[in-house]
Amino acid sequence: MLCGPKGSEQRSLQCGICGRHTELFELPGRTEKLCLSCGADLAISEQLTIEIDAAALSGRETENLVAEFTELSQRLLERAQSI
After folding, report:
1. Reduced to 3 states, what is the DSSP secondary structure of residue 50?
2. Cα gap 17→11, rounded to integer Å
3. 38: closest CA among 52, 51, 27?
4. Once rounded to an integer, what is the mean pLDDT over residues 55-64?
5. What are the residues facing 10 on neighbouring strands?
6. Tens-digit pLDDT profile for residues 7-20
7. Coil, strand or helix at 11
8. Is the separation of the CB atoms in 42 and 17 below 8 Å?
9. Domain containing residue 60
10. Number of structural domains, the chain?
11. What is the DSSP letter of 8?
C-alpha cells in the first residue's frame, strides 16, 4: 500500500504489535519493526525480565518489579488488541 502525496510514495508499514501506521524502529535481535511506544515498552519488559531473574536468584524482593512488569504487559496487550 502506498501513501503520501504524489512523488513521495513510501511503503506504509504497520507496527508489529499495535498495527499503527507510523514511523517504525528496529530493536536488536528482532525481525519486526515497532512504533516508538511499543518498542520502548518491549525493551523495558525485556530488561525487567532480566532484573526479576537476577533478583530472584540472589534472594532479593521481586514484588515491585513483578508489579511493574504486569502493568507494562497489560499496556502492551491493550495496545495490541486495539488494532
Report:
1. helix
2. 18
3. 27
4. 97
5. 3
6. 444 455 899 999 99
7. strand
8. yes
9. 2-81
10. 1
11. -
